[in-house]
Amino acid sequence: MIESSMNLSCFWYCLDRDAYGFAVRPQHVQRYREYSRIYKEEEEERSDRWKDFLQRQSESAQLSDTGLHTEENNATNGDESSNKKPDQNEQIWSHIRPSLRVIEDMMNARVRKKIDLVKACNEEDSEEEFYDLERSESDPAQNVLSSDGLNNRTAYIESSVPWKEELECLVQGGVPMALRGELWQAFVGVKARHIPKYYQNLLDSDTNNDNSKTSTTTPVCLSEKWKGQIEKDLPRTFPGHPALDGDGRNALRRLLTAYARHNPLVGYCQAMNFFAGLLLLLMPEENAFWALLGILDDYFEGYYSEEMIESQVDQLVFEELVRERFPKLVNHLDYLGVQVAWVSGPWFLSIFMNMLPWESVLRVWDVLLFHGNRVMLFRTALALMELYGPALVTTKDAGDAITLLQSLAGSTFDSSQLVLTACMGYHNVNESRLKVLRNKHRPTVKAALEERLKGLRMLCGSKEDKVDHTGEKMSNGELSRMNSESSNGDEPYLGVSTDAEIDSASDLQEQILCLKNELCLVLEEKRSSTLRAEELEIALMEMVKQDNRRQLSAKVEQLERDVAELQQALACKQEQENAMLQVLMRVEQEQRATEDARVYAEQDAAAQRYAVNMLQEKYEAATSSLAEMEERLVMAESMLEATLQYQSGQHKAPSSPRTNQEPLQDTRARKVSLLSRPFGLGWLDKNKEKLAEDTNGHQMGEVSLGL
User: Fold this and answer.
1) DSSP class of residue 704?
2) What are the strands, taking DSSP E only, across 7-91?
3) Which of 35, 199, 590, 617 is most buried, most CB within 10 Å of its CB?
4) Contact partners, residue 470, CB within 8 Å, separation at least 6
């Protein structure tokens, strides 16, 4: 189940990378870019808070811990001087900065107390029981002693640190990138776990084989086994990451090899390469080894052993918590035939690596390493169920439910919301409650394991039936001794101790050795077949997922093309609408100009009509005055003629015709002069000329209006 989740990272090498150098899934690139600005602001804020906190702690520690730091520095210098002979030690091991010594001292005290307690509890036990996880877990009294004793011994440490709550709030708010590697070392207690030259001795294969307490054949087989798996997983570890080049791969190989030799019962398990690779990115090589040792041997003890008892127990505990908090969701998953462990199993085994965005993964690791237990695993998983449970209820198929939850979990870029929901919303999920639930479900897991072991013993019994009846009892006794031999590897085969059966002992020993070899081969073949079947099943699931991704990618691309076409058509329509609007605006402007011209023309025509009316009235007045003047003229002429006739009648005298004619002409001349003087004939001519001019002007005005 781990390999299916880890192989997904192999497809991300050609995509954008985040601030840590990790690849971002193609479907999440756009959303990561949206959150990158938020990450930057949060990083600046938490850096300021941590800087202020460390400054205050350094100032308070300078007065009270001067002697203690001096002693530790002297011891450290002594260790460094003893390790200064090989140059490689200086490159792969380093101490954290002095400003973090206060936090390191508190965490180292916690680790030392736990180490001392484990040593005290195992003083009376053999070294076999110390490494045999199954025996140590099956002893409830020892578990109670370890938990209660550890709490009692470390109680004074918790009470003597007044700023622990503030530190916990800072850790929940996130650790700055510049301090994350060193703070992780302090949280895990790397300094307290460090043993000089131990890492180099593990890398020395000859020294490791000489100091090995197991048989001479078993380590070789195991080393060949996990070495091949390590070489297979090296290229899969963060492919394309700039820090894991040739030298980085070699350091990762050495780190995984050293741990496999340190803990041969676990050796190497898939997902360890990602843990080791992440630690190498944040700290030197040997520091990363001791941090990995603390995480796997302390925090996740029994998780990656061959039986994986603790992992199975935690899955049952988590399922009970989910059923308690989300009954509707669990009922729906049961209806679909989906087990909670199918989803939570990869989360727990990979510690959310390659399951969440890297910002969220690192934030979860900050809190997990600070607490020193697996409580944060349960809280984070419950927070994910709370966030995405409503979406899961809408699914109608088991595959759709698992795929949807994996997709939604992979898009959890809001790391602050996730950590806040996990720490504040599920504060009641603590270590004491988890211990009670683990003790409740551990017998169930062990019973299932015993059933499997009984099946193996029955298989061994069927093989022993081939031995004749005389050596049957002895072979059964030797088989039980052989089983203890294969589990512990401490005692050689002793043979038969009875004097009566000395003669047949060698033959029976040869038969038992043959059966033993045959049984080992059968068990190894069965295990290899099981692993191969699991790998094929995982590969088939990956192929199905890839096909689904390809189909979804094709649909997404088709939808994107359709959207692009619709956007292009919409843009064309918008351009047409803009052109029509511009035409309409121009027509409207022209209409307004025409309307203004019409109004101005009407106003001008009204003014001209008014002027014509005025001129017409003046013309009529002038005509009437002229008629009156003509009437006066006629009356004046008639009066003048009458006057002249009267005068001519009085002065009439006989004369010749010539003389008579001259007076008549003179009379007419005087008449004309008289008419011209008193009645103003010149004024009459002037009025006629003015009237003619007004008439011409009026006609020209009418012509212009007509035009």
Assistant:
1) H
2) none
3) 199
4) 504
